[in-house]
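Here is the promised in-class demo. Please do not try to memorize the tokens; focus on the logic of going from shape to residues.
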């Protein structure tokens, strides 16, 4: 398991029609605050504010095509040159990180071919480096490592 210590973030949350929404700093819009979105926003804030990843190089919930089927990834980090470097799969806190979740992110990587994978439910985190085999990392790499690998 990879150790991640989240900071205290100034989330912008609002309520409309008895539904909660959170402002996404990457998409620059309000999104419905589901349990999975809560995890996704923590990861996004962690990357931007703690690890200094540029917001402009993080894609959130975008579609990709896999074997003729449209899928949506949670987060992908790109290098300065636009190459995908890390896929992050977020699950709700109550969801188990099982084999199915790891297979899901591996399928996404067939298309994106990144160097790093991160699977999380906000409590459990597994970050792997795929260069020269699969290596489970003790922590989340700094932006300089991601951008230069």
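The designed amino acids, position by position:
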């Amino acid at each position: 398991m990879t150790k991640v210590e989240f900071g205290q973030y100034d989330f912008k949350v609002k309520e409309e029609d008895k539904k909660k929404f959170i402002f996404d700093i990457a998409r620059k819009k309000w999104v419905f605050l589901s349990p999975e979105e809560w995890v996704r926003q923590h990861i996004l804030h962690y990357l931007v504010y703690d690890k200094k990843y540029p917001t402009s190089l993080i894609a959130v919930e975008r579609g990709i095509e896999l074997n003729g089927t449209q899928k949506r990834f949670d987060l992908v980090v790109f290098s300065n040159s636009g190459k995908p470097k890390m896929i992050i799969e977020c699950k709700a806190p109550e969801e188990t990180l099982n084999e199915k979740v790891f297979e899901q992110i591996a399928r996404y990587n067939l298309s994106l071919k990144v160097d790093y994978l991160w699977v999380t439910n906000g409590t459990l985190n597994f970050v792997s480096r795929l260069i020269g085999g699969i290596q489970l990392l003790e922590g989340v790499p700094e932006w300089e490592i991601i951008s230069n690998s």
